[in-house]
Amino acid sequence: MKLKKCLKTALALAALSLSATSVMAESAKVPFPTEHRSWEHVRSTVIHDKANPLFGFLSTYANDSALEANKKGGEYPEGSYFVGIFHDVVDQGGIMTQGDRLKYVVMYKNKAFKETGGWGFQAFDPTGKQALIKDPKTGCYQCHTQVESSGYVFSKFSK
Predict the structure, then answer these.
(1) Which partner for 36 in 67, 83, 97, 98 could form a disulfide, CB atoms 3.0-4.6 Å apart?
(2) Span of the secretion signal (predicted)?
(3) What is the distance between the alpha carbons of residues 62 and 69, in angstroms, rounded to a whole number?
């Protein structure tokens, strides 16, 4: 079991390392939204399993158009953005807190992304500069098809 976890972690890290140098043209079109910290906080999630490629303390933010659709349900309009900021999970005597920033993940609604449900997906390094996803169709969209009925969006606004 422990070997299986190690292999998963190694594969996830290898995929991130390899993909950082070879970004698909479509994923390169997902712009990093520098103004994301002024957006509304949607929810936070902690994924504490280090073998999970989404490990970390995740804070999700939405721009105005994404937030409105997220609260009401229904179709997300063009230009909707979600940004997830991942931080390391630090245990300080039983209190889990945010550590160093690990990466950003971005969903950007644009009809140009026909093969991925109208969403562009990308992950960026901790500085927000280097794109990390080589194939958004298998690296992101494949999981997001689980929530097709909610517009491919996992995060629901937390009141």
Answers:
(1) 83
(2) 1-25
(3) 10
